[in-house]
């Protein structure tokens, strides 16, 4: 089984989330006896999903939207993604919701194009020392404090949940076609 975890990030925090998802996904599949290769790749560098059995695609969120490399990846590979299970995740945003029920990230188009089974929003990390001037200005205007808001146990649990969905049926499972044990 080959699984790609493709990620778009500006400062590396979202890639760290992708790496944790990949490690948890790999460990979860190993526990079931599945043989899997789980790789983390930059979204802008993925040229095809041919030969992949699943994909997890994620992006940092800026101004309520995914970064362009991740959006482009989904746009350009829509047909390939339609043939495999896909999960999406976002990292951030840093500001609080302004209205009840308002979604802090708009992934409507990405969800529709990817046919993803699920989208998860994880907290991000703010470190002003690595931000560019316009990013620091936005963070200051929103009065966002520096800090790491990534919930590692939740992120790892999600990776394992994906592994459970991808795991082959356990030995002795009679739910597959013939009614006989595998």
UniProtKB/TrEMBL annotation:
Residues 5-149 form the Flavodoxin domain. InterPro entries: Flavodoxin_dom, Flavoprotein-like_sf, Protoporphyrinogen_IX_DH. GO terms for molecular function: FMN binding; menaquinone-dependent protoporphyrinogen oxidase activity. It holds the Pfam family Flavodoxin_5. GO terms for biological process: heme biosynthetic process. SUPFAM superfamilies: Flavoproteins. This is Flavodoxin domain-containing protein. It comes from Amycolatopsis panacis. The lineage of its organism: Bacteria, Bacillati, Actinomycetota, Actinomycetes, Pseudonocardiales.
